[in-house]
Amino acid sequence: MAYTVETLIENCGKIKKVPPSLVSNYEKFLNFFLPKNLQTLTILLPYEMMDESEKIREAVMKTRPSCIVKILVDKDSKEIVFCL
User: Fold this and answer.
1) How many domains are contained in the chain?
2) 3-state DSSP call for residue 70?
């Protein structure tokens, strides 16, 4: 998993990190946070947020319907990492 995460971050065009405590409503946050013309998005979640992955995927699909979403979980991460 560490190799995949490192490779993902190296190949990412733009990285944005957000502490989970900053997000109370995924849909509103993502609508504000994500670029309007986003086509692919990879999200790296802390292990503790694994149960939230489907909620986050659904929120992205509602705000950016044409976006392809990949969600990965990292046991060492403490922040939500968006790879744009």
Assistant:
1) 1
2) strand
